[in-house]
Amino acid sequence: MLLTWTIALGGGALIGAAAALLLLTHGRIAGISGVVGGLLPPAATDRGWRVAFIAGLLAAGAIAALVAPAALGAPVRSPLAVVVAGLLVGFGTNLGNGCTSGHGVCGLSRGSVRSLAAVVTFMATGAITAWLVGGGS
Amino acid sequence: MSIVVAATAGALFGVGLWVSGMTRPAKVIGFLDPSRGWDPSLGFVMGGAVAVYALANRVVRRRRREPWFGTAFHLPTRRDLDVRLLAGAAIFGVGWGLGGLCPGPGLVAAASGSGTAVAFVAAMVAGMLAQRATMRR
After folding, report:
1. ipTM for the whole complex
2. d(CA B62, nearest CA chain A) in Å
3. Which residues of chain B lie closer than 8 angstroms to A38, CB-CB?
């Protein structure tokens, strides 16, 4: 239990450090939905760092598959449910200008009122959905 | 050089996500749903990330007028709460609780070769495009 929490804290610190690196060097918020959204039409003019950041994220996934595939976890829902989930996540994060990283990590850290409201909201609807559908471990 | 740094930030971010368990849908759903033996460890992920980023944000913003590569920091300044923000966050939360994946972990899991995660990311992008197509920004 203590080990799990320590690893979680360390993983979180790494996420925070990576986001801080992007802030220091590019002056950008490491919000994944925003980084991806900026590449979709009408695309933002600053595509270079966005493509590079996502490429790094994907590289981490590819490396993880080689090093510790079990740590990545397996899907728990039917493909149809996952597709519906993806549509909602894409639509919602674009409408609400952020996800777990942009509002959660960066926004809360900066003391943003909008991000706090967003986090409370998506945690609440996420909890209700998870409670209704189940499937946790 | 700026591209390499952005890619490095993305890779570190991705490693942080899988180390901390954010790519495991069952774990995410178990965190969101406190009714069945709650697993609070993802709260430590958020705590670790916010602690590091809040400190880094303060130091960077105090010490620097511009990022290393670029002429200005691109940070959100709005403080008003509106329906779009809250509705978007609510929709995102439903998708997160349903699929157990948010945008960053979805991309990492997709790159690891999970067909389900690839479908999630494709649906997420479709959801973003649908939001842009149906609503004025």
Report:
1. 0.96
2. 11
3. none
Q: Does B36 touch chain A (CB under 8 A)?
A: yes
Q: Where are chain B's structural domains?
A: 2-134
C-beta separation of B23 from B101 below 8 A: yes
As given in the structure block, the two tokens for residue B128 are 């973003």
Alpha carbons B115 and B98: distance in angstroms, whole number? 17
Q: What is the pLDDT of residue A137?
A: 66
Q: Which of residues 112-131 of B touch A (CB under 8 A)?
A: 112-114, 116-117, 119-131
Q: How many CB atoms lie within 10 A of CB B8?
A: 18
Q: Mean per-residue pLDDT for A39-49?
A: 91
Contact B88 A93 (CB under 8 A): yes
CA distance A44 to chain B (A): 13
Q: Which residues contact A121 (CB under 8 A, 6 or more apart)?
A: B86, B89, B90, B93
Dihedral pair phi/psi, residue A97, rounded to 5°: 55, 40
CA distance B114 to chain A (A): 8
Give the tens place of pLDDT for each residue, B74-108. 999 999 999 999 999 999 999 999 999 999 999 99
Distance from CA of residue B134 to its chain's centroid?
24
Phi and psi, residue B80, nearest 5°? -85, 150
C-alpha distances (whole Å) from A68 to each of B19, B80, B103, B108 are: 10, 43, 21, 13
Judging contacts by C-beta atoms under 8 Å, the chain A residues touching residue B20 are 7-8, 10-12, 14-15
Looking at beta carbons, which residues of chain B come within 8 Å of A63? 15
Contact A72 B108 (CB under 8 A): yes
